[in-house]
Amino acid sequence: MHEKKITNVQMIMREGEVEYAVLPWADYQALLRATGQGGEALEAPERPAVTPSLAQLVALREAQNMSQEQLARAVGISPSYLEMIETGERQPDSAIRRALARALGIADWEGNS
């Protein structure tokens, strides 16, 4: 039996514990086949048309392994201002929303025009 090593796994942490493991689709399919749960190639699910809300900002940033400082610098704001956005203390204007979306590789923010 040929064993394929999965090396491109991203761990998403919450409160110091691993909550999710994210792996490439091809590795997921191989894992299913190896456990006898997927004889045929599975199709990738359709992406939802829903855009994320600002309440998901921390999870999106952490999923990309970015620190607050890294994201703040990429957007052109201070880390303390980003922290206020993440906690809901401040609502960013549309330019900062667009910059956050661009830095995180998402289409746009919910409610953004």
TrEMBL record:
<protein>
    <submittedName>
        <fullName>Helix-turn-helix</fullName>
    </submittedName>
</protein>
<feature type="domain" description="HTH cro/C1-type">
    <location>
        <begin position="57"/>
        <end position="109"/>
    </location>
</feature>
<dbReference type="Pfam" id="PF01381">
    <property type="entry name" value="HTH_3"/>
</dbReference>
<dbReference type="InterPro" id="IPR001387">
    <property type="entry name" value="Cro/C1-type_HTH"/>
</dbReference>
<dbReference type="GO" id="GO:0003677">
    <property type="term" value="F:DNA binding"/>
</dbReference>
<dbReference type="InterPro" id="IPR010982">
    <property type="entry name" value="Lambda_DNA-bd_dom_sf"/>
</dbReference>
